[in-house]
Design goal:
- This protein is an alpha/beta fold.
- Helix content is about 30%, strand content about 20%.
- It contains 8 helices and 11 strands.
- Strands 5-1-2-6-7-8-9-10-11 form a 9-stranded mixed β-sheet.
- Helix 7 runs parallel beside helix 8.
């Protein structure tokens, strides 16, 4: 099997507990307005718009396809800014074995791996095979997901997974559709299902004042999950919106103050969440 990989971060301390290798897959069915890595949303259409934007000559258009010369790339991301399709010409089609070779190089220094994206569960079968082999290496396996996959029907993937770090972007269904283009019915079902199984170590909500119903979301997410904390600890991570990396048309969204974040954290604790973190 092969899957499109946007990038691999060999050593990450922000994609789950401890030092981890994070694998970012390409492609996502959501179109979140505040997405901080929008270049992971779509697969390359090979339109060629990025080629002339590359100052290092690392991109070329040959036989109708964009080719990336990694050795020439200077990492300026001019190609990402030029892409009209929310994609990247630097995506690699990789096999499980190729990713394992990269992980093996990091093995003495990492606690585990995290699959992210984009939306990594688009490649659930691929990840199931990868997780079986990394688990055999003594590593932990985490999934960073927007909840678009029905995890109650994903036993093969969860068999070797140590948990899912789930985004709950907005509790209100209509608000979620406005923000992402998709409803959140399955997201909320997944939250309860994973929490019941003790496979929900972390839930995240991005806070944008005046744009999202933040208080409602934090209160209702907390009420939903608080009863399941006896099955396994659940950290509720409240993330302050920041405009870095966001598409130009959404960079004017307001950044919440520390006082606003503290107030929401207090609300989550009042609704029963024992572990609340502000980021």
């Amino acid at each position: 099997m092969i899957a499109p990989v946007n990038k691999i971060i060999d050593h990450s301390v922000v994609d789950g507990p401890g030092n981890r290798t994070a694998v970012f897959f390409q492609g996502c069915p959501f179109r979140c307005q505040y997405c901080h890595n929008p270049e992971t949303m779509a697969l390359c259409t090979h339109c060629g718009a990025c080629v002339s934007a590359c100052p290092a000559g690392a991109l070329s258009l040959r036989e109708g396809k964009v080719h990336w010369e990694e050795a020439l790339c200077v990492g300026c991301d001019s190609c990402l800014r030029a892409c009209p399709h929310l994609s990247s010409p630097k995506v690699k089609e990789m096999t499980v074995e190729e990713i394992l070779l990269r992980i093996q190089q990091n093995r003495p220094f990492i606690r585990g791996i995290t699959c992210s994206g984009g939306e990594c569960t688009l490649y659930a079968g691929f990840m199931a095979e990868l997780f079986a082999k990394t688990k055999a290496m003594g590593l932990t396996n985490l999934i960073d997901s927007n909840g678009i996959l029905d995890f109650s029907q994903a036993d093969a993937l969860l068999e070797h997974a140590d948990g899912v770090m789930l985004d709950i972007k907005c509790f209100d269904r209509a608000g979620h559709i406005r923000l992402t283009g998709k409803d959140n019915d399955l997201v909320l079902q997944n939250a309860a299902y994973l929490a019941r199984r003790g496979l929900l170590p972390e839930v995240r909500t991005v806070i944008i004042p005046g744009v999202l119903p933040n208080e409602e979301t934090v209160a209702l997410v907390s009420r939903l999950l608080a009863p399941y904390q006896a099955n396994g600890p659940i950290r509720y991570k409240l993330i302050a919106f920041r405009p870095m990396g966001v598409r130009e048309e959404f960079r004017s969204f307001p950044v919440p103050s520390r006082a606003e974040m503290e107030s929401l954290a207090t609300l989550a604790r009042e609704q029963g969440m024992a572990d609340v973190a502000i980021v």
